[in-house]
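Exercise 7b. Backbone tokens:
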């Protein structure tokens, strides 16, 4: 079943890597056993005997290496592999320089390279012993894997687990659905943070939309009961409606995005920003006979101070180190500021233009 899942992964560009017990087990145990048996025979016959090289032998060996590198570089160049030809030529120059050093070497230099040969022999012998030990180890099976691997790839009930790694950013709203669709296409039982994240994101977004609609409806009903006139109810809603629209427009201009931290800014602006329009309409109903300038002079100052203090309080959140909290403060600042401007500038002039108030 794991092999079947691994084969299906190959057809999905959204999946970068597949990881399971198969990573540590041979795909074809019979072929692997035959290969290991052959390697074991070669390793058993292998031996390292150190015979110190003379200056002449070392120089002759370097000259043969120089000639081989020169031939390889020429062949690479003629076949159009210029980069490889350049690397081979640089290696040949290094070998030629070493040959010249051997020609001018004395007893001290010869003793140094003999010591180096002995060190190399020791390292090769150690490596051979390690490889022989690996060749003599039994074929790995799921039951013989180390505990740290078994606990990662096998559940407590004995079920095998496979991991799919994305080839992109799962926080990218365009990539996440594609990766989740590819994962479920590979295995119907696929589960994990990306799938849960997409599901929960949809639930939160849908719930937010419903809550905002219910909140706006209740606010409108409360204003209708309070003001008892449809025109005044609509006018009281104008500042908060314009404030939210301007906030959304400024988000586009400032390249701000909604996230789970600042999404709550919209209902907060709805609840806080509605006050300005309500107070102005109430003041107009009380002393509208004195003219709109009098109404704004008496209520506009209170609205201004109340809104500015609220903007300062919310705006201070923009200094938070948490990016989500900072974006929440920025949206609240823009939203309440938009409601303030709409209440003291747009709403009075709108009422004058509609003939509902005199100057």
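Sequence design result:
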């Amino acid at each position: 079943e794991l092999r079947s899942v691994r084969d299906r992964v190959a057809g999905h560009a959204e999946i970068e890597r597949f990881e399971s017990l198969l990573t540590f087990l041979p795909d074809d145990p019979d072929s692997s056993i035959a290969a290991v048996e052959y390697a074991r025979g070669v390793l058993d016959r292998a031996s390292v005997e150190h015979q110190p090289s003379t200056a002449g032998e070392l120089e002759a060996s370097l000259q043969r290496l120089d000639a081989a590198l020169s031939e390889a570089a020429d062949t690479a160049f003629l076949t159009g592999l210029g980069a490889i030809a350049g690397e081979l030529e640089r290696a040949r120059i290094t070998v030629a320089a070493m040959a010249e050093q051997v020609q001018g070497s004395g007893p001290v230099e010869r003793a140094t390279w003999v010591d180096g040969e002995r060190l190399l022999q020791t390292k090769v012998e150690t490596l051979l012993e390690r490889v022989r030990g690996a060749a003599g180890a039994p074929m790995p099976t799921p039951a013989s894997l180390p505990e740290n691997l078994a606990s990662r790839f096998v559940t407590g009930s004995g079920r095998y687990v496979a991991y799919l790694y994305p080839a992109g950013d799962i926080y990218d709203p365009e990539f996440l659905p594609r990766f989740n669709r590819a994962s479920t296409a590979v295995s119907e039982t696929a589960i994990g943070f990306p799938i849960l994240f997409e599901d929960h994101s949809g639930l939160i977004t849908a719930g937010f939309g419903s809550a905002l609609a219910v909140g706006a409806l209740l606010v409108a009903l409360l204003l209708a009961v309070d003001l008892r006139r449809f025109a005044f109810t609509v006018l009281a809603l104008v500042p908060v409606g314009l404030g939210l629209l301007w906030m959304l427009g400024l988000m586009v201009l400032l390249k701000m995005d909604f996230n789970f931290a600042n999404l709550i800014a919209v209902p907060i602006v709805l609840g806080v920003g509605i006050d300005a329009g309500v107070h102005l309409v109430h003041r107009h109903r009380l002393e509208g006979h004195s003219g709109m300038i009098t109404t704004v002079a008496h209520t506009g100052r209170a609205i201004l101070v109340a809104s500015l203090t609220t903007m300062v309080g919310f705006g201070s959140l923009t200094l938070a180190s948490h990016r989500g909290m900072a974006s929440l403060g920025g949206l609240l600042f823009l939203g309440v500021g938009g409601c303030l401007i709409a209440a003291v500038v747009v709403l009075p002039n709108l009422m004058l233009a509609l003939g509902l108030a005199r100057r």
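Instructor comment: Residues 193-227 form the longest helix (35 residues). The chain has twelve helices and two strands.
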